[in-house]
Every structure is written in structure tokens, then in C-alpha cells.
Specification:
The chain is α+β, with helices and mostly antiparallel strands. It is built from one helix and three strands. It starts with a strand and ends with a helix.
């Protein structure tokens, strides 16, 4: 559904379930584009966003795992050094 709030702000409810709504703010110097052109651009953007979010989640998970492993290794090395010298 495309709903024109004003001449320069358009509210779109995409079919993708990840988004509640998309708000497009048009440049004031441009003409208002065709509804089909707006819909195709919004669908293009909303299709790309879930992939980006999944990649970002995967990257964050990998960083946490590497940090945890490094912390465990440093802790184990510290206890080993203390055990050998004490």
C-alpha cells in the first residue's frame, strides 16, 4: 500500500514481513515519481535489508566467539604461569 502523506513524504507498507512500513522522503526539487517506480525501488531496498541484517548478526556472533576463545586462552595461560612459578 502506498499512502502519500504530503507531496514530499510517502509512506509504504511493503509485503516483506520484516518491515512494518517504509517512509520515503523525496527531494523537494524533483518531480513526484510514478507509483510503480516507487514500489519497485522500495521492494529492491526491502529485499536487500534482511540479507544485510543476517550478515551483521553472523559477524557479531563470530566476534563474540573469537573474543571468548581469546579470553579463555589468556586465562589458561595465566593460571599455567602461576602454577609453574608458585
Amino acid at each position: 500500500m502506498i499512502k502519500g502523506v504530503t507531496k514530499s513524504i510517502i509512506e509504504i507498507i511493503p509485503k516483506n514481513s520484516c518491515f512494518e512500513k517504509v517512509i520515503v522522503i523525496l527531494n523537494s526539487s524533483c518531480d513526484i515519481p510514478d507509483k510503480n517506480e516507487i514500489r519497485s525501488q522500495v521492494e529492491l531496498l526491502t529485499r536487500r535489508a534482511p540479507d544485510y541484517l543476517q550478515r551483521q548478526k553472523r559477524s557479531t556472533t563470530l566476534k563474540i566467539l573469537v573474543s571468548g576463545a581469546a579470553g579463555a586462552l589468556i586465562t589458561a595461560a595465566s593460571f599455567l604461569i602461576l602454577y609453574v612459578f608458585v
